[in-house]
Amino acid sequence: MAGELLQYSGLITKTRAMQKRLLKKEDFERITEFQTVQETIEFLKAQESYGRIYGGREEIKHRGQVEALIYNSILEDYQKLYHFGNKQQREAMKLYLPQLRYKESNTRIEISYFVEVWKKIEKFSGKQMQQVLQEAFGTQIDWLNIMWMYRGKQFFHQKPKEMESMLIPVHYKLKKIELQRLLTLEHMEEFQKILSNTVYFKGREALVKIQDEISYHQVMQKMYQCLCRKYPSSMALIFYYFYEKEREIERLTTALEGIRYQVPAKDIRELILGL
């Protein structure tokens, strides 16, 4: 434990400092009240996390320009943390890099990416490192599969064979037999009944309560919070920061789009904060 604390002390300190600069709920509430993109730009210039990336660039006046800088900010953060890490920590961060939203909004990540990541995890030394990586990526894989099945059935009425080709051929806490049953069920009532009996909804490891709209982000946030408490000196906090920063960028770009098209403030708040 003492060795892990020493290995992670600098990286954790740097990450916590970045975490404190993330925008708060009240910041987003204020942003939704802006009438123009320029007002949003001026607000972001005054924030510690974004002011530095403007660097006196007065030509930044349009939504596309500000979004490019916002996306780039997460890559800058990644590079700073990468240089703080040791060899194994850097290798762990490389696993997450393809998921980071920079340059432009990501489309669906290739299935092969998750398959390769899952293979690489077992090559890391140290039980704790492997457990953290398995929990972070394993939970994500399980829930991406759940969400793709849910959407395929609920909104697109896809057949099992169609959906199967979209699923990641890896399972973590979601058992293979449970995955197959969820895939073949035709009715959403049956789908949710089976899902409610999986580890994600039952016992000490339950992450969320069953609900009409299955929430991927609710699950991921709860998982990272639990993981950070269980392994305070680990990659958990670094991955959680990347996840939070991605969510911040997603909310900012959604808000900018809403402001540009004069969407009412209450509707923008609903979209980005669920208020």
How does this model look, in words?
- The structure is a single chain.
- Helix content is 67%, strand content 0%.
- It contains 14 helices and no strands.
- The chain is globular and about 55 Å long.
Individual helix count: 14
Strand content range: under 5%
Order of helices and strands: HHHHHHHHHHHHHH
* Coarse shape: globular
Provide the helix percentage.
55-70%
Structural class computed from helices and strand pairing: mainly alpha
Mean pLDDT: 88
Q: What about the largest sheet?
A: none
First-to-last CA distance: 41 Å
Question: What is the C-alpha radius of gyration, as a whole number of Å?
Answer: 20 Å
Q: What is the total tally of β strands?
A: 0
In short:
The protein has 275 residues and is mostly helical.
Keywords:
275 residues; mainly alpha; 67% helix; globular
Indicate the topology.
Elements: H1 2-20, H2 25-31, H3 37-45, H4 48-54, H5 63-84, H6 87-96, H7 111-121, H8 127-154, H9 160-164, H10 176-184, H11 188-195, H12 216-230, H13 236-260, H14 265-273
